[in-house]
Amino acid sequence: KKLSNFDTIDDLSIQLCWAELSQLMQCDSPFQEECMDLFIESLENAKLSSSQIPTLFFLAETIIYWIRTDTVNQPFLRAFEIKLLKVGKMIFERIYIHFMDKSLDDQHDLVDHLSIYLQGFSDLKAAYSPYPDAFLYIEFMIKIGDIVGTHVNHPKSATNTTVASYFTDSERRLSMLDQFLWSTIELFKLLKSKYDRKILDEFLTTFDSLVFRDENWLDASLSLYILAECSKINIKALDIFLQLSFKDDDYEDRLIRDEISPRKTLKSSGLFKWSIELTCVYVELLADICINGSSPLLKRKALLGNHKEAADVFNNGDAQVFGLLDTAKFAASPQSDWMVRYMAVKGLVRICKSLNDKQNEEFRQISWACLVIFQESEKNTNVLEALKVGQINSKIEPLIKKEKVELGRTNVYCRFAYRLGDLRENGVPKSQMNRESYVDEELKDVRLESLPESASVHNKSILTNTETKLADHAIVTAKRRTTLKDELLISSQFETKVPDYYERKNIDLMRIVEDQFRKDLRDNLHE
After folding, report:
1. Are residue 236 and residue 342 in the same domain, yes or no?
2. Looking at the structure, do residues 395 and 313 belong to the same domain, yes or no?
3. CA 97 → CA 19, 386, 415, 425, distances in Å?
4. In a domain, 436, yes or no
5. What is the mean pLDDT of the chain?
6. pLDDT value for 430
7. Which domain holds residue 133?
8. Do residues 223 and 98 share a domain?
């Protein structure tokens, strides 16, 4: 099936595709790079589904094992290794979203097994520190792994779990997210709908009273990813995105003053005070907007920032709002500012390699001219390595469909926005509301007698929405009995079926792949 239409592919086919690609990628063959590119493309666009959770954990363990036993022992960084780390980052991002919607609360075995693989994984950060993009992907995997492992396997403090507390945990988890993230999600949903321009302008003014908090760089980066999707189609959203990098020396004092006398300005500590992980995400997204922006005006603004011409970037002093060219001459802390310039140079290489059509010829020439200037003036050899690494991602860009895609159709971060928006409105996903396993083990014995006495079947007005749903679920569960048809299905579902020709050939193929993989491992051990 075509990769351009992931909405028509069922979850089972996607999971089989992921499993087979993960096996084929481990074979030393001419198709190894192509399999990796297809894997990245599918992870960027495939639907979110709780049925994918076991497959995602299997893939996460496979990637971690592969990195620890093979790639980290190589004497130099390979293109395939950068792609492998990006695959790991995208897999863990999907796991994180499932963690936020409570889909992992009953997956203790999977989380425990993944935690074993992650033990000591943080020691690999030093090996990838000369390459900020690889370092960023490792940080994502470690951070998400720690959060999921800590919260899912944390013993419950309350001995007597009530109906209200069961839903309060979910709401409390969502309420811990920053208000800026929720506003960004609402902006995304508004741009996706048939909105009125006046309504959009009124909503954008709400950002003036918000604070972009960077204490938790993981949630802050999620806000940036979703806001970047909005920035690809709306110039005012891009203005907000760029305004976040505003250099504010009095950020802490302004927060204190605004508690007494609020001012209508968007508050952010700025690029100079962000963590290096969040700064690298910001620069990477600027390059993404330059490549995938819906109009030349959006691309130009993401590249130049508030400058009118590219020459102004080199003639003017320090930038207050950072476009991609401004980040290429970023200078703050000697220990980390080179990492920002590395990501900027890598982004410029991606632009020059990806936008090779006539429509973007002028934009590409500007990027190329600036890239030459930065190459001649840059003294740090680590930054110059981005000239090579940037060409890796540019090979993946042509796989993405160049036609104009409706916002929210394919990109995984658009799907993240929809999922988080549903969580805030409904508390739990509808897919979980319909599942028998929705009520956890401690609530399986909850029946109407555990609810308030006045909450009868015909009088549930005093109940909350969540308690009402659970009451209805208890009624249905109490009356449910297996029919004769169900008994026949249960008795016949474990019958041994003879595999057909294609199933037997598929089994033979998987055996060949596994044998080849074992031989490669044995040869590596002998060496």
Report:
1. yes
2. yes
3. 20, 30, 10, 16
4. no
5. 77
6. 41
7. 6-154
8. no
Q: Is the dihedral of CA 56, 60, 61, 62 positive or negative?
A: positive
3-state secondary structure 103-159: CCCCCHHHHHHHHHHHCCHHHHHHHHCCCHHHHHHHHHHHHHHHHHHHHHCCCCCCC
Mark out the alpha helices in 205-359 (DSSP H runs). 217-231, 235-243, 251-260, 276-292, 296-304, 310-315, 324-327, 337-354
Judge whether 512 lies within some domain: no
Is the distance from CB of 76 to CB of 35 less than 8 angstroms? no
Pick the range with the lowest mean pLDDT from 51-60, 95-104, 391-400: 391-400
Residue 153 pLDDT: 65
Does the residue 396 lie in any domain? yes
Q: How confident is the model at residue 451 (pLDDT cuts 50, 70, 90)?
A: very low
With a CB cutoff of 8 Å and minimum separation 6, the contacts of 34 are none
Do 213 and 357 belong together in one domain? Answer: yes
| Contact criterion met (CB below 8 Å) for 142 and 122 | yes
Q: Which of 106, 124, 154 is the last residue of a domain?
A: 154
Q: Do 145 and 210 fall into the same domain?
A: no
Does the CA dihedral 325-327-328-332 come out positive or negative? positive
% the chain with pLDDT above 90: 31
Q: Which of 392, 416, 440 is the last residue of a domain?
A: 416
- State the total domains in the chain: 2
> How far does Cα 355 stand from its chain's mean position?
25
